[in-house]
Design brief:
alpha+beta; Uridine Diphospho-n-acetylenolpyruvylglucosamine Reductase, domain 2; Uridine Diphospho-n-acetylenolpyruvylglucosamine Reductase, domain 3; Vanillyl-alcohol Oxidase, Chain A, domain 3; 5-stranded antiparallel beta sheet; 4-stranded mixed beta sheet; 13 helices
């Protein structure tokens, strides 16, 4: 009986293995058939004589395929030999290429992943576990600025840096509220909300969008009027790729002073930073809306007397839409524990501040035109939270202790209030408005590609996120769409 039982198990294993091979072969054959049909379909729906669609298609047999794919992969976690690859990449050169891609993918059962800048934290814009193609928007990045009407049309493949640069070249008194990382693609950044260091003055990027052009699931080109207000509402904060392909946005430029003021001041535990953080939580969301102060706690290692030590160092990074003298006076009156001095601050133009806020002072404006981050090949994981009540001293002390234990996780706390508290939560598909004192991002990055290092870092950020549970929003615990986090779940 035992021998018969063993024989039965072995037979079942052989049969199961055979079925898996057959199924895999069927899927492979089906994928081959689908991609062949997809490629044959494309010319029928792209009628641009100036831009033949064949010039924008990269299949796996194309020698440039991997180079095009990897050019906009921002996280090395999703750039391994085992990472699922698209059957093809369509790097659209013309709007008709997008229409053809949507129509032909739909008719052949292929999923489309849409990529503009490649900063998707979980790689969703270029990874899928079903047969898929990547629709890459990086060639479509024109920016048309009209200072007279204080508006601009910006294509989805442009970066924030390119937009800032073009605005700065056109005007000294205009800007736009968007992110600090200037290699972000406009298409995805705006559709998920788009926030930056002017959100307390002017709200989010989506609060300053007045029109859009999209391609819907039927391959039609629509604008705000033809798509209707429901869809226009959804793509401003709800993530455009769920509904359509964003072609371009029409934005309303905002007024900025000719001179703004920047500062970055670090404080450590030994300098009483816990007290400063407690005060920051009380004032950062209700202070003058022209002032934005990001707080970034991280572990700082130093040597003293030949011994290695660790502490918490918090950087207070600010942008003030005004002059230095006024800023120092305001800070010392409303946020005195920071002890800001005149030599801590520097005046500059708004466009110069977009460089300063991300990579420091003294860099030429042309760095805004760089489309590839530096360093370009890191591994990382990100999470987010919204905080509605100040975290008490006891909570901060536990958090500092945990961060020192982990070493690898750092935080960004971005104050709300001001304009963000005035916009109704249902005015766009971005609901995180009044009642939040700050939004938090958790970050961990590493260079070592070993499984051990990856597991340790992923566990570390998840443990710290769990520790914050008593101090953040609940029922539900809110998260920011653009800070993709697969731990929350997937559809």
């Amino acid at each position: 009986m035992k021998a018969l039982y063993s024989y039965s198990i072995a037979s079942n294993i052989i049969l199961l293995s055979f079925l898996i091979i057959i199924f895999a072969s069927h899927v492979k054959a089906s994928s081959s058939s689908s991609i062949d049909n997809f490629l044959e379909c494309l010319p029928s729906y792209s009628n641009s004589s100036s831009f033949p669609i064949s010039n924008s298609v990269y299949t796996r047999n194309n020698p440039s395929f991997l180079n095009v794919l990897q050019s906009y992969i921002r996280d090395s976690r999703f750039n391994t030999s085992s990472t699922p690859k698209p059957l093809a990449i369509v790097a659209a050169l013309d709007v008709t290429h997008i229409q053809a891609t949507v129509t032909c993918a739909k008719s052949n059962g292929l999923q489309i992943r849409i990529r503009s800048g490649g900063h998707d934290y979980e790689g969703f814009s270029y990874v899928a576990n079903v047969p898929f193609i990547v629709l890459d928007m990086f060639n479509l990045r024109s920016i048309d600025i009209d200072i007279a009407s204080e508006t601009a049309w910006v294509q989805a493949g442009a970066t924030i840096g390119e937009l800032y640069y073009k605005i700065g070249k056109k005007s000294k008194i205009h800007g736009f509220p968007a992110g600090a990382c200037f290699t972000l693609g406009i298409g995805g950044h705006f559709s998920g909300g788009g926030y930056g260091n002017m959100l307390r003055k002017y709200g989010l990027s989506i609060d300053n969008i007045i029109d859009a052009q999209v391609v819907d699931a039927n391959g039609r080109i629509l604008n705000r009027k033809s798509m209707g207000e429901d869809l226009f509402w959804a793509i401003r904060g709800g993530g455009g790729a769920s509904f359509c392909v964003i072609l371009s946005w029409k934005i309303k430029l905002v007024r900025v002073p000719r001179i703004v003021t920047r500062f970055d001041v670090p404080r450590t535990l030994e300098q009483g930073v816990t007290d400063i953080v407690l005060e920051w939580q009380q004032v950062s969301s209700i202070i003058d809306r022209n002032l934005f102060i990001r707080m970034q706690p991280m572990v700082y290692k130093y040597k003293q007397g030949g011994n290695s030590n660790k502490t918490i160092r918090v950087s207070f990074s600010g942008l003030y839409l005004g002059r230095a003298k006024s800023l120092v006076s305001l800070i010392n009156k409303r946020f005195p524990l920071l002890k800001l001095q005149r030599h801590d601050v520097i005046e500059m133009s708004w466009v110069e501040s977009t460089v300063s806020f991300f990579i420091g002072n003294g860099k030429p404006l042309e760095v805004l035109l760089q489309r590839t981050p530096s360093p370009p090949r890191l591994y990382g994981k990100h999470k987010s939270d919204f905080v509605k009540t100040p975290i008490p001293r006891s909570g901060l002390e536990k958090i500092w202790e945990k961060m020192i234990e982990l070493e690898t996780v750092f935080l960004q706390w971005n104050p709300y209030g001001g304009r963000m508290s005035e916009i109704q939560e249902n005015s766009t598909a971005f609901p995180h408005r009044e009642g939040n004192i700050f939004k938090m991002q958790y970050l961990t990055t590493w260079e070592d590609d070993s499984d051990e290092v990856m597991s340790r870092n992923l566990k570390g950020i998840r443990d710290l996120h769990a520790m914050f549970t008593p101090y953040v929003s609940r029922n539900p615990r809110e998260a920011y769409l653009n800070y993709r986090d697969i731990d929350i779940g997937s559809n």
